[in-house]
Write a structure and sequence with these properties.
The structure is a single chain. Helices cover about 60% and strands about 0% of the residues. The chain is built from 30 helices and six strands. The protein has a two-stranded antiparallel ribbon. Strands 3-4 form a two-stranded antiparallel sheet. Strands 5-6 form a two-stranded antiparallel ribbon. It is globular.
């Protein structure tokens, strides 16, 4: 009987392959973690392109794209990841397998081949492809397509126009261009056993856990499906309180409540606009926004983030603000991502943009330099150091391993997984060449014929693509062996900011093509490695990734366009009600970056004409830091704790701040420690059985209630009016946290010192 999975027909006899093969030890993976996690067998008779896979895959991709874009504009932009779909679609798939008709039928044009809506039990390969669809729907964990941010800043922040067609072409080409050359690199970073991609093993472990039969050891335990439903319902019902009835539960600051008129107390105690001491939350979106669910992050990663976060927020920032008054820190809020005048007022960016959408230099000189809060400036410094430290750290601590594994991969014997994958028809190279050439041609047409929308010259696209292509292979090798993925975002915006200052949209378009093409290529290869381990036919993998990416980008743009044209004053925090969720924190930072790197240019911010030129020394500090750690490790090899100092992680711990707030970090660290240290150590069986299920159910319940609240109450602007939820009050009641403390600086709503 046939299913839609036509191309998965193996070249070898299925009967032979179904038998337990005798595996030559020389074919086993050289990586112990892979040998312990990944099955070394395959059943090529399992149907893959089934009706269930297409229905659940397309639906989950569209749903995640909708939800993540919807959340993307909110103050706490919860990202629903593929793990939620991975858990939720298993019972649905099994239910469909039990109720769909098994009747066989023929489709005209397919000859005598027979099809069925229900070819048998719901299997793991279908489940993997559904999850890949969902991963595309969450932009490979990023939430939404990166280029949607360009549309948002043009329409909402710069208050200019961009056509829907130009927006769609921009999003799709930036999302799929990297797939072209990524496919051609598969033989270097997917097929070799030494390129093992550690992050995929978490997914495989969860797939095997979900699909294994639940053992009955005599103990009365609730099933995973029932546990998922119960937690989902509880999460759904609870969110009505922090989401609508009692919004103060989003961030409860004990210090602000105890000292309602003290600016310093609010700066210290505010979880959203201060240092977050004494603040806590009863809202899952606050816990899981920006950093994703803490339940799926390993404890060692949580510890690294905590150390880096504590050093920066509780040591560097207080000393810089109260001790050194660095960069006139007290003239501005202690924690802000806004751009200011020298007198602490918000900088009106629209006044320095001329009719050509370029910098109006006379007006800029009249208004004066753009100023950053000291926290925002230092985050750029730590960003510079993180990029440099990543290069040095990987070279010193992993360089020999990467080089030896790359050499071994070029001459090693195919392992059992690669051998089993050769039973399926491979993807012709011309597919990738066609995709690459097609996306470049469409991108060039966008830059030439719709230049008024994207501003970038045609050579900028070629330069960005060349830059992304050059970095894809080395960064893929680094990710495949160390699970660290250096980003190109700061590098790309710095380069174009130097070449073409004064053109903000040129800068963000160049950054998106350069950075996202590489990032999408690495994500594409990571998913291909997951399919490689799970023995998914390559053509199925490619088509699901491509279709899912196009569908997700289209839904992202549709939702963004709808919200940008229907929510009054969206993204303008100063014009919205105090408790409005539509503050667009991620897009605000993206807009600020377009001003800093594109409109004004790095020369006037970080160069000879700027006041933040000393931050460039962070590049040197980042480069030399890992060298010191490495020399200490060589000098004291018996001290096993020294190589555990991971400077890229420590320096980049606050990489999500802004837009993330201290409360996002402290709540994430606390919840992650409870479940991934205490529960994992003392209730390991419970953790193994329910931890990922709990994470997925909490995400799903909150997501559905948020959408329901918006459609039922938000569209009509129906709100409560009491101390715990009012459009006239900030829910946190830390109104003075954003006030300056410098003498003589007067800001509306703040005391003047």
């Amino acid at each position: 009987m046939g299913t839609v999975e036509i191309e998965a027909t193996p070249k070898l006899n299925e009967k032979v392959l179904k038998e337990e093969p005798i595996i030559d030890e020389s074919e086993l993976s050289p990586i112990e973690e892979v040998r312990l996690t990944v099955p070394s067998t395959d059943d090529p008779s399992l149907p893959v392109w089934t009706f269930r896979m297409w229905f659940l895959g397309v639906f989950s991709c569209a749903l995640l794209s909708f939800l993540n874009q919807f959340f993307g504009y909110r103050t706490e932009p919860l990202v629903i990841t593929q793990i939620t779909v991975q858990v939720a679609t298993l019972p649905i798939g099994r239910f469909m397998a039990s109720v769909l008709p098994t009747t066989k039928f023929r489709i005209p044009g397919f000859g005598s081949r027979e099809f069925s809506l229900n070819p048998g039990p719901f299997n793991m390969k279908e489940h993997v492809l559904i999850t890949i669809f969902a991963n595309a729907g969450s932009a490979f964990g990023a939430g939404t397509a990166y280029a949607v941010g360009i549309v948002t800043i043009v329409k909402a922040f710069y208050e200019r126009s961009i056509s829907f067609l130009a927006s769609w072409l921009l999003i799709i080409t930036t999302q799929v261009m990297g797939y072209g050359w990524a496919g051609l690199l598969r033989k270097y970073v997917v097929e070799p056993a030494h390129m093992w991609w550690p992050s995929t093993l978490v997914q495989i472990s969860l797939f095997r856990t979900l699909h294994e039969k639940e053992e009955n050891d005599g103990k009365r335990r609730i099933s995973r499906v029932k546990f998922f439903v119960i937690v989902l319902v509880c999460s759904f019902c609870w969110y009505v309180f922090p989401g609508y009835l009692f919004q103060t539960l989003q961030s409860i600051s004990l210090v602000c409540l105890a000292f309602p008129r003290s600016v310093t107390a609010h700066q210290i105690g505010s979880g959203m606009s201060g240092l977050g001491l004494g603040a806590f939350t009863l809202d899952w979106t606050t816990v899981a926004s920006f950093l994703f669910s803490p339940l799926i992050s390993p404890f060692f990663a949580i510890v690294n983030v905590f150390i880096g976060y504590a050093l920066i927020i509780y040591l560097v920032i207080p000393i810089s603000y109260w001790g050194l008054n660095l960069y006139n820190a007290k003239t501005f809020p202690i924690f802000a991502s806004d751009l200011f005048t020298s007198q602490g007022q918000l900088y009106n960016i629209t006044l320095i943009v001329n009719d050509k959408f370029e910098l109006d230099l006379p007006e800029y000189e009249k208004l004066g330099r753009i100023n950053l809060s000291t926290f925002f400036a230092l985050t750029y410094g730590f960003g510079f150091a993180t990029i440099a430290a990543t290069v040095t750290h990987v070279a010193l601590f992993y360089g020999r391993e990467i080089y030896s594994r790359y050499r071994a991969s070029s001459r090693e014997k195919a392992d059992v997984h690669t051998r089993l994958m050769r039973n399926y028809r491979d993807i012709p190279s011309w597919w990738f060449y066609l995709l690459l050439i097609g996306s470049i041609i469409v991108g060039l047409a966008l830059c030439i014929f719709l230049k008024k929308d994207v501003q970038m010259p045609w050579w900028g696209l070629i330069f960005a693509a060349a830059l992304a292509f050059f970095f894809t292979l080395p960064i893929s090798i680094i990710t495949a062996t160390t699970n660290q993925t250096p980003g190109l975002n700061i590098i790309t915006e710095y380069i174009m900011g130097v070449i073409l200052p004064g053109e903000p949209i040129t800068n963000v378009c160049f950054k998106t093509y350069g950075y996202m093409s590489m990032a999408q290529a690495v994500a594409f290869l990571s998913d291909f490695k997951l399919g490689h381990y799970m023995k998914i036919p390559p053509r199925s993998m490619f088509l699901v990734q491509f279709i899912g990416t196009v569908l997700a980008g289209t839904v992202n743009l549709g939702v963004a366009w709808w919200l940008l044209t229907s929510v009054d004053n969206i993204c303008h925090k100063n014009l919205l009600p105090a408790n409005s969720p539509w503050t667009c924190p991620g897009d605000k930072v993206f807009f600020d970056a377009s001003v800093i790197w594109g409109l004004v240019g790095p020369k006037r911010i970080f160069g000879s004409l700027g006041q933040y030129s000393t931050l460039n020394w962070f590049f040197l500090g980042g480069l030399l830091g890992p060298v010191v750690v490495w020399l200490l490790h060589k000098a004291f090899p018996s001290q096993t704790w020294i190589p555990l100092i991971n400077l890229p992680v420590l320096l980049g711990a606050t990489g999500n701040m802004p837009p993330a707030s201290p409360l996002n970090y402290t709540s994430w660290i606390l919840v992650g420690t409870i479940f991934n240290f205490f529960v994992f150590r003392y209730r390991k069986q419970w953790w193994q059985r329910y931890n990922y299920i709990l994470s997925a159910a909490l995400d799903a319940g909150v997501a559905f209630m948020t959408v329901l609240l918006y459609f039922a109450l938000g569209i009509e602007n129906k709100s409560l009016n009491w101390w715990g939820a009012s459009p006239d009050y900030l829910p946190e009641h830390c109104d003075l946290a954003t006030c300056p403390t410098a003498k003589g600086i007067s800001v509306d709503g703040c005391p003047t010192f």
